[in-house]
Automatic annotation (TrEMBL):
Pfam families: ydhR (PF08803)
Protein name: Monooxygenase
GO molecular function, one term: monooxygenase activity
SUPFAM superfamilies: Dimeric alpha+beta barrel (SSF54909)
Domain of life: Bacteria
Keywords, ordered alphabetically: Monooxygenase, Oxidoreductase
Length: 101
């Protein structure tokens, strides 16, 4: 079974192309985190919100990443970090073409 981690938080900037350039090294480093299968980066410039949706191999990997990532975000001065972990129903997700692998 795989696990989905959803994280979001308030962030003033950067967004769009500026965000893509600013966080390329961070994006590459996420691929080296234990259990990460993929990440989708999310942003809403109008609401000043950012975050991501991740797929992990195990719940434990998702929990460890959330703890580490929350501490990293807090070191950048970001507060009110919301993180939720969900078990993925693979049978139903496959019907809807969910990228679960």
């Amino acid at each position: 079974m795989t696990y989905l981690l959803q994280v979001d938080f308030k962030m003033d900037r950067p967004f769009g192309e500026e965000m893509s350039k600013a966080f390329v090294d961070l994006a590459k480093s996420i691929n080296d985190e234990p259990g990460v299968i993929w990440k989708i980066w999310t942003e809403n410039a109008e609401a000043k919100e950012s975050g991501g949706v991740y797929l992990f191999e195990t719940k434990e990997d998702a929990e460890k990443y959330l703890t580490m990532h929350s501490a990293r975000l807090e070191s950048f001065g970001i507060t009110d970090i919301r993180g939720k972990i969900f078990a993925v129903n693979e049978a139903l997700s496959l019907i809807n073409h969910g990228p679960i692998k």
